[in-house]
Amino acid sequence: MSAPHRLSRRERQIMEIVYRLGEATAAQIHEQIEDPPSYSAIRALLRILVEKEHLLHRADGPRYVYAPVVSRSKARSAALAGVVDNFFEGSAARAAAALLGSTHGKKLTKTELDELSTLIENARKQGR
Fold first, then answer.
1. CA distance 84 to 89
2. What is the pLDDT of residue 49?
3. pTM value?
4. How far apart are CA 16 and CA 11, in angstroms?
5. Contact at 8 Å (CB) between 108 and 100?
């Protein structure tokens, strides 16, 4: 992805399906999308996602098969970096504090807290 592009709700749904399947045709996406728009709308959205450089496609007989340009983990990292930059002045610590202080009723499990402690300790050792 050369430049970040915001995704609409439908585009995010399509990307989620493609990530889950690894690659998909318009028909497969149409079958799996929640409350699907028309088949032609799916194809138009796929064209847009190719133009935005989120998907690439290859011909497979009379249809195209779509696949993500970047891995899900790279896409997540890029999206998170954008949130940190836009809402937390680039501070990972502020973003983490917001997540940990969240009042959404979800408490971190002991396992999650241990995972975070390990990540922090590894970052310290690597000088990050």
1. 7
2. 97
3. 0.68
4. 9
5. yes
